[in-house]
Write a structure and sequence with these properties.
By secondary structure, the protein is α/β, with parallel strands linked by helices. It has 2 domains: about 190 residues, Rossmann fold (3-Layer(aba) Sandwich), CATH 3.40.50; about 160 residues, Glycogen Phosphorylase B (Rossmann fold), CATH 3.40.50. Helices cover about 40% and strands about 20% of the residues. The chain has 14 helices and 16 strands.
Length: about 375
């Protein structure tokens, strides 16, 4: 079969990018021809072969609703003539292109992975999100053949998924349990870890405040923050104001080959996200596969606490609550037995539920139904 993935970006380190690469590689191993159409993130166009995949990156003209607007994708879809288009939602411009192509080419199957809703911030975003529903809901119902959701929690909270429930299959995001695995932690100082983009919904300001509380109690620790984003300079200032500049190390970008060792050298992983924009939290899953307990937040109708089981693989706290977060951090610092027990349970859950190889097989079955 000819399979074309249509997504925002392909080369980044985010959860959707990792998910897309995993699905593409599995399809190639199964003998399918795979192409990807996405934004380059720049004004440049490129078309190349990489590990058996044809990657078409279109110039990014602008962004809307936190998604790229590129040159029209129709002509590229016309030239590829796929049997299946795997559409990654949310991505409004790409959605319009793919649904228009489906109207013209009715035999092409559309498989959509619904990663998250567009969570509006402010009146303009709210209006744009409402207008998008006028085409998205009927298109998902009448033009998509199958829809993949990454957790039952998100299905329960998403109007779009609830209204398309007859087509929805729950397949979580997977993790490479051979790449991310437990190992010896040689660090001398207790280390918390955050991995992700430095953007508002990740809740890093709350983590900084919690570090201030922890430092005030006399605890000796460090927090490694891996990732980059528009809040980098603001977070540096916040850390200085909170008096924890010496406790938080902003590592910015870490190479993909080095990331597993960063997880292994940590003691506890923290995902302090605030909103349903955090639909799943792949980074916490990478930490779990590495045998680390996770502190995450209870975001209503998000898949974050579906991944991290409270009291089993880690601790789930209220979002935007630095006191609850600091208490959870202190608890895992003080109780080594609990920390190791939760870390072992986290690894077992990653192996049993989220093994990337098994997840990829389930996606291939959706293609081949």
């Amino acid at each position: 079969m000819k399979i074309v993935h249509v997504t925002k970006y392909f080369s980044g380190s985010g959860g959707i990018e990792s998910y897309t690469r995993s699905a593409c590689k599995a399809a190639i191993r199964a003998g399918h021809k795979v192409s990807i159409i996405c934004s380059s993130g720049t004004k440049k166009y490129s078309r190349r072969l990489e590990q058996g995949m044809e990657i078409i990156e279109l110039p990014e003209l602008a962004t809307a609703m936190n998604a790229p607007i590129t040159n029209p994708m129709i002509k590229f879809l016309e030239s590829l003539r796929p049997d299946i288009i795997h559409l990654h939602i949310p991505n409004p411009w790409a959605e319009l292109n793919v649904f228009l192509y489906k109207i013209i080419h009715r035999k092409t199957k559309i498989i959509a992975t619904y990663h998250s809703d567009v969570v509006p911030y402010g009146p303009i975003m709210n209006l744009a999100s409402s207008l998008r529903f006028f085409y998205l809901l009927p298109s998902m119902n009448f033009l998509c053949d199958k829809i993949i959701a990454t957790s039952p929690n998100y299905v329960a909270g998403s109007l779009a998924l609830r209204m398309s429930k007859g087509k929805v299959h729950i397949i979580p995001i997977g993790v490479d349990i051979e790449k991310f695995k437990p190992g010896k932690n040689t660090g001398r100082v207790f280390t918390f870890l955050f991995v992700g983009r430095l953007i508002p919904y990740k809740g890093l300001d709350v983590l900084i405040k919690a570090c201030g509380i922890l430092k005030g109690s006399g605890k000796r620790f460090i927090v490694n923050v891996v990732g980059d984003g528009k809040l980098y300079k603001n977070l540096l200032l916040s850390a200085a104001r909170a008096g924890v500049k010496d406790r938080i190390k902003f590592m910015r970008k870490v190479g993909d080959s080095w990331l597993p060792s960063v997880y292994r050298k940590s003691d506890v992983f923290i995902l302090p996200s605030l909103y349903r924009s955090e639909a799943f939290g792949l980074a916490q899953l990478e930490a779990m596969a590495s045998g680390k307990p996770v502190i995450s937040t209870e975001i209503k109708n998000s898949g974050v606490s579906f991944v991290n089981e409270n009291g089993v693989t880690g601790i789930v706290v209220k979002p935007n609550d630095e006191i609850s977060l600091a208490n959870a951090m202190m608890k895992l610092m003080d109780d080594k037995k609990l920390r190791l027990k939760m870390g072992a349970s986290a690894r077992k859950r990653a192996e049993k539920v989220f093994d990337e190889k098994n997840i990829s097989k389930r996606i291939l079955k959706i293609y081949e139904y």
